[in-house]
Write a structure and sequence with these properties.
The complex is a heterodimer of chains A (88) and B (486). Helix content of chain A is 86%, strand content 6%. Chain A is mainly alpha-helical and 88 residues long. Chain A has a domain of 41 residues. Chain B contains 21 helices and no strands. The longest helix of chain B has 49 residues. Classes of the chains: A mainly alpha (88), B mainly alpha (486). At the A-B interface, α1, β2 and α3 of A face α5, α10, α11, α13 and α20 of B.
């Protein structure tokens, strides 16, 4: 009985830790993505500013920044999760 | 317009697809082989197959066409199609694989021990898959019809028949190998067109944008409300697409499922980064010539590379359609032949289940052909966007809370799925009838589904007795399970 309780406790603890990690990374990425239409709407002047030649802030954001942020989060998450599973 | 090179290249794809299916036919003798390729597909193979599965006619033809037509607003589709994968990785990829079933209905029914949920998931799978199949078949008919001179009906029938043959012959394994080949082909086709198009601007992205500067600002098509709703729907919809989720079952482990997503993000990310270049180059180089958004890419290819390039692009588009529809046929077949049949005929032998699966695939193939004929002329990327909205509303909330919240109950899950499915269907229909202007309803129906699950579960309180066992199974690392079984 106590061993099944211990197992449940251990699972609960592990799930909470995993959720915290996924949730914080997920919310960060959703913010990065969903804030773009908001910035276009309410900070149009800054977003349309040309940054590199004809490439504006909003253009670079949508065709480059979202991708780079996603790749960084992906590699960070997978490498960290692999390590944690190994250490568990 | 007759294109002998394109016709020959399409012929080569047909020959390769059928040969792969023929060689894989011995791998369809069990349900495990037919639906999940014996769970023996490694991460890189799976990433290529997933990318082929995911990058449909909407991605290959539709996104470039929308960028050509609306400029910046079309880029939302590329960013949204890509961004959804991260949500899938962070919240669902490993748990879904560790559960180890065949379909989404298996997953929700297994979590809540509920026939009602199995039926709801089956209906949801069919609804999403159908919405997704329609634009692919429309794309096949338009593309082959207009560019190869084939009759629209003939083109749809040929594409539908070919897909059905190779799914029936080779099941998930043949579908996987074909999707790998098709992924390489369509990615390469996009890369070559982009390179040739950019060459016309001395390989300067800035110079290209300078020629179409009025198309690089937001607001030509979507207002604030609709651009926000679209990106919201696309990001969450990916994590609810049945034909994508079931591919995670083909991985050998949860760890492998995660690495599959990493490689997939790399492949599709680089692909979607190319689509705005191609769409804007088309705007600059061929102006208003294309008669429909779906033909922008082939016409640009002809402009920058002549007959050979248009051949490569038509072959790439055909590959995109084949790989996606094959994945959708498998998902729909699983919903009917696995979810429904095993519920109606419990204890049916494995051999009988495989036979039913193959017959169902033929039926789904016929439906794909008929819907392709019925919906002629619709915009492919727009229709796929609606499929994402239904997927996001129907499946994402129930999977998310089912996987992460132990307080979810059967009644809560059922309420959430019904709210999401019916709500998104009604919102889409009323938008098409011009009752309201919200084109993508997920921004309302996804939160509504989450709230329905939460409050009904709280009110109900009947949490399944084995919830912690489930949590242990889907969240704990494989080595914990291995140690326990030793």
């Amino acid at each position: 009985m106590s061993s099944s309780k211990d197992k449940a406790k251990e699972t609960e603890k592990y799930v909470a830790k995993e959720f915290k990690k996924s949730f914080s990374l997920g919310v960060f990425f959703l913010l990065v993505t969903l804030i773009l239409p908001i910035l276009n709407q309410f900070a149009g002047g800054v977003m349309l500013k040309k940054l590199i030649g004809e490439l504006s802030v909003t253009y670079l954001y949508s065709v480059l920044l979202i991708y780079i942020v996603a790749w960084i989060i992906t590699v960070y998450y997978v490498v960290r999760t692999d390590r944690e599973e190994e250490e568990h | 317009m007759q294109q002998p090179i394109a016709t020959a290249l399409v012929g080569v794809i047909v020959a390769i697809s059928v040969t792969v299916a023929f060689l894989s036919r011995k791998f369809t003798r069990s349900t495990s082989e037919f639906y999940v390729a014996g769970r023996g597909i490694n991460a890189i193979q799976n990433a290529l197959a997933l990318s082929g599965d995911y990058m449909s006619a909407a991605s290959f033809l539709g996104v470039a066409g929308l960028v050509w037509a609306y400029g910046y607003d079309g880029i939302w589709y590329a960013a949204g199609f890509f961004a959804g994968w991260l949500v899938l990785l962070l919240f669902l990829a490993s748990p879904i694989r560790r559960f180890g079933a065949y379909t989404i209905a298996d997953f929700v029914a297994g979590r809540f021990h509920s026939r009602k949920l199995r039926i709801a998931a089956m209906v949801g799978t069919l609804m999403v898959s159908l919405f997704y199949i329609i634009p692919q078949m429309v794309g096949a008919g338009e593309l082959l019809g207009l560019l190869l001179g084939w009759d629209y009906v003939f083109a749809v029938v040929i594409a539908g028949t070919l897909i059905t043959i190779y799914v029936v012959l080779g099941g998930m394994r043949a579908t996987t190998y074909n999707q790998i080949i098709q992924c390489v082909l369509l990615w390469t086709a996009m890369f070559v067109v982009m390179t040739l198009a950019l060459g016309k601007f001395d390989f300067s992205y800035s110079q290209l944008l300078g020629t179409v500067s009025e198309y690089t600002v937001p607001g030509r098509w979507l207002d604030f409300k609709n651009s926000f709703a679209l990106i919201f729907g696309l990001v969450l919809g990916t994590a609810g697409l049945p034909h994508i989720l079931i591919r995670f079952y083909t991985n050998p482990s949860g760890r492998s499922a995660r690495w599959t997503t990493v490689w997939t993000l790399l492949i599709i990310g680089t692909f979607y980064m190319m689509t705005p270049v191609v769409g804007l180059a088309a705007r600059s180089l061929i102006g208003d010539s294309p008669s429909t958004t779906n033909l922008v890419l082939p016409m640009l290819a002809q402009h920058v590379g002549g007959e050979w390039m248009i051949g490569v692009v038509i072959a790439g588009a055909f590959a995109a359609i084949l790989s996606t529809v094959a994945g959708l046929v498998i998902a729909s077949t699983g919903a009917i032949a696995h979810d429904l049949f095993t519920m109606l005929v419990p204890g049916a032998s494995d051999k009988r289940q495989v036979l039913v699966a193959k017959l169902t695939s033929v039926g789904v193939g016929i439906i794909a052909i008929l819907t392709g004929l019925l919906f002629r002329g619709y915009n492919v990327a727009f229709l796929v966007g609606l499929a994402f909205a239904i997927a996001a509303s129907t499946f994402f909330p129930v999977l998310m809370l089912g996987v992460w919240w132990k307080g979810t109950t059967e009644k809560g899950a059922l309420a959430g799925m019904i709210v999401g499915m019916v709500g998104s269907g009604v919102m889409i229909a009323t938008n098409l009838l011009k009752v309201h202007t919200l084109m993508n309803p997920s921004i309302i129906t996804v939160p509504a589904s989450f709230l329905a699950i939460y409050f009904i579960s709280k009110f109900d309180g009947k949490v399944p007795g084995d919830t912690m066992e489930f949590m242990h199974k889907v969240h704990m690392p494989e080595k914990v399970h291995e140690a326990a079984s030793e």
